[in-house]
Amino acid sequence: MTKSDLIKRLAAANPHLYQRDIERIVATVFEEISAALERGDRVELRGFGAFSVRPRSARVGRNPRTGREVEVPDKVVPYFKTGKELRERLNES
């Protein structure tokens, strides 16, 4: 599902709201999640999952085209862990 698909579904489920308001709401939610991760905070959506950041240390990698060694600096990467309710819904028989 893309962001525009999400907006269309929310608009269909909430005909009393203007589409531009729904677009603004979705953009604000994503921006707040991004801002929290930039600060190093953890974002938990109960029943869905939790977003956090994890550090990766510097390492020596390889250029797949040439095979030469390349220094890869340390960085922080986003991480998502699914919530219990979502895992159970996905694994229903």
Placed side by side, the strands forming the largest sheet appear as 1-2-5
Spell out the CATH superfamily of the largest domain.
Answer: IHF-like DNA-binding proteins
CATH hierarchy, class of the largest domain = Few Secondary Structures
Mean pLDDT: 95
End-to-end separation: 23 Å
Kindly identify the CATH topology of the largest domain: HU Protein, Chain A
Identify the quaternary structure here.
single chain
**Proportion of β residues?**
25-35%
Cα gyration radius (Å): 19 Å
Q: In CATH terms, what is the architecture of the largest domain?
A: Irregular
Number of helices: 3
Share of helical residues: 40-55%
Family: Belongs to the bacterial histone-like protein family.
Pfam families: Bac_DNA_binding
Protein name: Integration host factor subunit beta
Keywords: DNA recombination, DNA-binding, Transcription, Transcription regulation, Translation regulation
Question: What is the topological layout?
Answer:
Elements: H1 3-13, H2 19-38, E1 43-45, E2 49-56, E3 59-62, E4 69-72, E5 75-82, H3 84-90
Antiparallel strand pairs: 1-2, 2-5, 3-4
Helix pairs in contact: 1-2
Family: Belongs to the bacterial histone-like protein family.
Subunit structure: Heterodimer of an alpha and a beta chain.
Organism: Marinimicrococcus flavescens
